Amino acid sequence: MANAKPAAAVSTAHVLPSYLDPNHLGPWGIYLQQIDRVTPYLGHLARWVETLKRPKRALIVDVPIELDNGTIAHFEGYRVQHNTSRGPGKGGVRFHQDVTLSEVMALSAWMSIKNAAVNVPYGGAKGGIRVDPRTLSHKELERLTRRYTSEIGIIIGPSKDIPAPDVNTNDKIMAWMMDTYSMNVGSTATGVVTGKPVDMGGSLGRKEATGRGVFTVACEAAKQIGLPIEGARVAVQGFGNVGGIAGKLFAEAGALIVAVQDHTGGVANDKGLAVPKLLEHVAKTGGVAGFKGGEAITAADFWACTCDIMVPAALEGQVTRANAGKIKAKMLIEGANGPTTPEADDILHDKGVLVVPDVIANAGGVTVSYFEWVQDFSSFFWDEDEINRRLVGIMKHAFDAVWQTAQEHQVSLRTAAYIVACTRILNARDLRGLYP
Ligand SMILES: NC(=O)c1ccc[n+]([C@@H]2O[C@H](COP(=O)([O-])OP(=O)(O)OC[C@H]3O[C@@H](n4cnc5c(N)ncnc54)[C@H](O)[C@@H]3O)[C@@H](O)[C@H]2O)c1
Q1: What's the superkingdom here (predicted)?
Q2: Is the pLDDT reported for residue 9 higher than 60?
Q3: Which residue among 162, 239, 264, 360 is least crowded, i.e. fewest CB within 10 A of its CB?
C-alpha cells in the first residue's frame, strides 16, 4: 500500500519556519495538532509550549558517493535535534526514498515525547537519508553511511546526540557509523550510536527490545480492558524488526496471528499463521507475499479483518480517515511511529477502539538503547535477563502512569502520554531557564 503522508490541517496560530511549505506539512502537521491537543493541560508550563513547536537544530547535508560504476551520486541527508532540555538528542536514522525534512522533524519530536514519556534522560532527535538502500551495493551502502556520519559528525556524539537504527538501517550500519565517528575523533567512541552489534559495545536484547516493549504494553492494556492475550486474534502491519518480534511474542503467548501485511502484500489465516515459518519466509524473500501458510489478502482486506488487537508496525500515516472506520479490533497498539492520523484517532475513539500510542508502545527500543549507552559508558555489560527484566519494569511503569493520567483527565492515552511527557520536558526547560 502507498506510504500515505497526509497534509494535515494545522491551526493558523502556528508560526511555521520559512523552510516548511504550509500546504505540505506532512507528519510535522500531525505532530503540531497533537501538541495543540495537550496544551490546555500544561498549566503554567504552557508559556513554554512554543519550544516544542520548532526543532532546536535541523541539519541538511549533501551526501556524495562514488558508485561502483565510477559515477558520482548525491543523496540528501538530515539530522534534526528537536529538543535537548532533558539530555542529549536520541533517535534513529532512516534510509528511505520518501524521507523528507518534515518527516524527520516529526520523528525527532516524537522521540522527545517518547523519551520523556518513559523517563529516560534524553531529548529527541532523528536522522535520515533520502535513498532506497535496495538500489545500492553493500560497498555503496557503506560509503553512503560513512559519508553521512562524517557530515553529521559536527552535531552528534556520545553526550550530544546518539543515533540508532530505524527503517532500513540495522546493527551493521551502526557499526559503520561508530567506526567513522571514532576515526574522525581519534578514539573508539562506542557510545555514539546504539543498536550496535553485541561484539562491539551493543547490548543483548536490543534487537528484540521494541517488539518486546510493544508486546509488554499490549498485555498491560489488554488487562485493563479484560482481554485475554491467550486466544486473542492479532493483525500486524509490517513484519520487520518491530512487527516480526511483536508477532512472535504474541504467538508464543498463545495469541493467533490472523493477518500480516507489508510492502510486498498481505497474508491471512483464520487459524493463525505459523509465525516462525513466516519469519523465515520474510528473511529469505524480503516480504510476506507468496507465503504458503495462508491466503493472499489486499491492504483493504487487512484493515477490515476480524481481530482483537491490531499492530501497525510499518510506517507513519497508515491508519487514516479512509480505513479507520473499517477496523474491527478492540485495541490498536502503535508499533510504528505516527501510524495513526488525528482524524483516524477520533474515528477509532468514537468506535471505542483503545489506541495505545507509539510514544509508549514502541518505547522499548529506546529504553534498551539507553541501557546500551549506560553499559558503554561504564564498560560493564549486563546479561539478557537483567536487560529484559529492567525493560519490562520501565514499560509497565510508564504505561501505568499514562493510564492513570488518562483516567484523571478523562482523555485518550495519546493525550495522556503527551501530558506526562510535555510536562517533564517543559518543566526541565522552566528549571533551566533561557540562555543567556
Ligand atoms: N527498530 C526499532 O527499534 C524501532 C523503534 C521504535 C519505532 N520503530 C518504528 O517501527 C516502524 C518499523 O520499523 P522497523 O525497525 O521494524 O523497520 P523494518 O525496516 O525492520 O521493517 C519495516 C516493515 O514495514 C513494512 N513496510 C514498509 N513500507 C510499507 C508499506 N508501504 N505498507 C506496508 N508495509 C510496509 C516493510 O515491509 C517491513 O515489514 C517504523 O515506524 C519505525 O520508526 C522502530
Answers
A1: Bacteria
A2: no
A3: 264
Q: Which residues line ligand 1 (CB under 6 A)?
A: 1, 3, 165-168, 210, 237-243, 261-263, 287, 313-315, 335-337, 362, 365
> Is the pTM of the predicted complex or chain greater than 0.70?
yes
pLDDT tens for 131-171 read 999 999 999 999 999 999 999 999 999 999 999 999 999 99
Sign of CA dihedral 363, 33, 93, 116: negative
Mean residue pLDDT across the chain? 95
pLDDT at 10 (0 to 100): 52
Domains annotated for the chain, with CATH where assigned, are 55-189 (3.40.50.10860), 207-361 (3.40.50.720)
Q: What's the CA gap between 370 and 373, in Å, rounded?
A: 5
Dihedral pair phi/psi, residue 41, rounded to 5°: -100, 5
* Cβ proximity of 203 and 162 under 8 Å: no
Nine-digit cell at 122? 534524553
Centre of ligand 1 from the C-alpha of residue 333, in Å = 14
Q: For the chain, how big is the Rg over CA atoms in Å?
A: 21
Among the atoms of ligand 1, which is closest to the Cα of residue 282?
39
Angstrom distance (rounded) from CA 396 to CA 398 = 5
Cell numbers standing for residue 40: 490546555
Mean pLDDT of all residues in 390-410 = 97
Judged on CB neighbours under 10 Å (0-12, 13-18, 19+), 15 is exposed
Say which residue the cell 509488554 belongs to: 216
The pLDDT of residue 297 is 98
Pocket test for ligand 1, best of 95, 115, 166 (most atoms within 8 A of CB): 166
Q: What is the pLDDT of residue 4?
A: 35
Alpha helices in 118-169 (DSSP H): 138-152
Q: Can you give the pLDDT at residue 15?
A: 83
φ/ψ (deg, to 5) at 401: -60, -40
Q: Name the strands in the sheet holding 309-312, side by side, starting at the edge strand that comes first in the sequence.
A: 295-297, 265-268, 256-262, 233-237, 309-312, 331-333, 354-356
Q: Which helix (H) or strand (E) holds 317?
A: none
Using the mean position of ligand 1's atoms as its centre, give its distance from the Cα of residue 167 in Å. 5
